[in-house]
Amino acid sequence: MSKTELTNMVMIQDPITGKVLVQDRIKSWKGLSFPGGHVENNESFVDSAVREIKEETGLTVRNLKYCGVIHWLNNRTFDRYIVFLYKTKDYTGSLLDECDEGKNRWISIDELRVTPSENDMPKYLPMFLEDGYSEAFGSWNDEEPWDIEYK
């Protein structure tokens, strides 16, 4: 039987410097990534994003703007991994240097675009930075390379 995982990811941008907050993840999906995590039972997608950001970064985010969804399908098991994407420039609090997931830091979008990362994070940037996309879809399995299509 196939399973579906619901997750979120939030691009937090400093309104003054324009830099974005990334985690250098050491657990699953290793490499640079925007913070986020799993949706828990009886939790809305937005509430889960706000909670995950607080847990992983120490920041309280508000006024999340929906950017679309990344939808992964395992073409062998038919498991689905769905990531709801948000962005905001509205946050308060003190940034945690690190959490269980990895270290947090601010970098420019240009730097993020050219920084090699195991998880290919730069491929997801159009969903956050360009209008006109509502979904990125990718098919994968553990033995074959993957690619992503924007819809």
Structure description:
With 151 residues, this protein is an alpha+beta fold. The model has no long low-confidence stretch (mean pLDDT 93). The strands form three sheets. The chain has a six-stranded mixed β-sheet with strand order 4-1-7-6-11-12. The protein has helices at 45-57, 109-114, 125-129, and strands at residues 4-12, 20-25, 31-33, 36-38, 60-62, 65-74, 80-88, 90-92, 98-99, 102-107, 135-141, 144-150. The protein has a single domain (4-143), classed as Nucleoside Triphosphate Pyrophosphohydrolase (Alpha-Beta Complex). Helix content is 16%, strand content 45%.
List keywords for this structure.
151 residues; alpha+beta; Nucleoside Triphosphate Pyrophosphohydrolase; 6-stranded mixed beta sheet
Give the SSE map:
Layout: E1 4-12, E2 20-25, E3 31-33, E4 36-38, H1 45-57, E5 60-62, E6 65-74, E7 80-88, E8 90-92, E9 98-99, E10 102-107, H2 109-114, H3 125-129, E11 135-141, E12 144-150
Parallel strand pairs: 1-7, 6-11
Antiparallel strand pairs: 1-4, 2-3, 2-10, 5-8, 6-7, 9-10, 11-12
CA-based gyration radius: 15 Å
* Known CATH architecture: Alpha-Beta Complex
Report, as a whole number of angstroms, the end-to-end distance. 27 Å
Roughly what percent helix? Answer: 10-25%
What's the number of extended β-strand segments? 12
The CATH homologous superfamily name equals Nucleoside Triphosphate Pyrophosphohydrolase
- Quickly name the level 1 CATH class: Alpha Beta
What is the overall silhouette? Answer: globular
Q: How are strands sequenced across the largest beta sheet?
A: 4-1-7-6-11-12
Query: What's the domain count?
Result: 1
The averaged pLDDT comes out at 93
Contiguous low-pLDDT stretches (5 residues minimum) are none
Structural class: alpha+beta
Give the helices and strands as they follow along the chain. Answer: EEEEHEEEEEEHHEE
CATH topology: Nucleoside Triphosphate Pyrophosphohydrolase
How many helix segments? 3
